Amino acid sequence: MHAARGSCCRIRRMDSSRGHRLPSLCAPPVFLFILAASNLVTFFVFSSTFSFSSSGCSASSYFTSPLTAGAAAGDGATVTAQVERASPAADLPPESLAFTAPQSFPFGRNPNSQSDVLIAPVGHPCELFPAELSRFMTYPVNGSCPDDEFEAQRLLLKGCEPLPRRRCRPAAHADFVEPAALPESLWLTPPDSSVVWTAYTCKNYACLIERKNQKDFDDCKDCFDLEGREKSRWVVPSDNPLDFSIDEVLRLKPPGTVRIGLDIGGGSGTFAVRMKERNVTVVTTSMNLNGPFNSFIAARGVIPLYLSISQRLPIFDNTLDVVHSMHVISNWIPDTLFHFIFFDIYRVLRPGGIFWLDHFFFVEEQMGKYVSMIDSVGFRRLKWVVGRKLDRGPELKEMYISAVLEKPLKNSW
Ligand SMILES: *[C@@H]1O[C@H](CO)[C@@H](O)[C@H](O)[C@H]1NC(C)=O
Ligand SMILES: *[C@@H]1O[C@H](CO)[C@@H](O)[C@H](O)[C@H]1NC(C)=O
């Protein structure tokens, strides 16, 4: 199966910190195109069932040997995903194939893609999880999709991102009503009927709001209470130097020049709402980790983007005035991915754009590593505050950095 390796173009990647070397892989140009098109920051663990006989080598790189995901991630983890399939395509449902199989353009060769066929992207790790992928792609065509948000998100978070498209109608609440009107909608708890609750422990907003009083961990657990902490975030002056206010950050730039932006991992969308109140358009990326974050953000009247931290931002180079991220970008992210994320943020910011890194947390001994990683990207520090994170006790030696980093207006390249 690996006969083709090395006979076409080669891709090698050295992890500078550990010297892991991935096998060189057969990668015909069209395959590189798929890789680029499928927007994967995640690692060069190739899985493909596409066959390109025209390129003079078969790119069907079915896995026949253990694949060390940890090595690919450069973190030395021991996770080993062993996938052995003689004929992977045959295991997948027809809809899976229907979506991913190369499809001929109706008018022949397409000048933009320089190809006769269009190949729709899915995350290349999708095929590492054939059982989950099969379940996801098994549904009545033209009919109702299964109510499977929980499984779909799990598949996505494993790396199958983007998920394949489906030809079915997503589950929706039977009593959906028109949303509240702007601007009231920005600070209104939406009706329970705006959410399909199947994927979450809570089955209504009263439960989500009450969650702030519970002991169990939940992502952003006080974020659904719009009368609570959300109300003061970024607007009420704080004596903690790590808490910047939106207005003080906007004052770092000429008035009105911060117009469009992105909030990465923006919880329930309050940052975007506060920015909207200042006439700044912000899109919020969020997953739905045990809560209907995307539905909630949308119900408030700002745009949710269902995107994990792993994926390349679907935004062009040098475009955004501001990127903000609180808590999400932290030390749980593998180092190599962390470095890629910072470069991706730098990429989408326009020259002179600002990255507000809000409460980035880590432990004290990691400080040097993170500071040199952040500094390697090319930002200029407009604000930089380092402080202790004490909520779990001082003995853990946890730290925060809050910073406003500017992409240089000149010579940013
Ligand atoms: C779904 O709809 C399309 C378009 O009308 C049709 O061609 C196809 O046969 C339908 N498929 C099924 C399984 O009903
Ligand atoms: C936002 O824009 C509207 C319409 O142009 C304007 O009336 C309003 O004063 C602006 N608000 C802020 C906070 O700049």
Automatic annotation (TrEMBL):
GO molecular function: S-adenosylmethionine-dependent methyltransferase activity
SUPFAM superfamilies cross-referenced by the UniProt entry: S-adenosyl-L-methionine-dependent methyltransferases
Residue span, Methyltransferase type domain: 262-356
Keyword Transmembrane helix: yes
Species this chain originates from: Spirodela intermedia (Intermediate duckweed)
Transmembrane annotation, as ranges: 22-46
Pfam family, one: Methyltransf_11
InterPro entries tied to this protein: Methyltransf_11, Prob_Methyltransferase, SAM-dependent_MTases_sf
Protein name from the UniProt record: Methyltransferase type 11 domain-containing protein
Keywords: Membrane, Transmembrane, Transmembrane helix
Keyword Transmembrane helix belongs to the record: yes
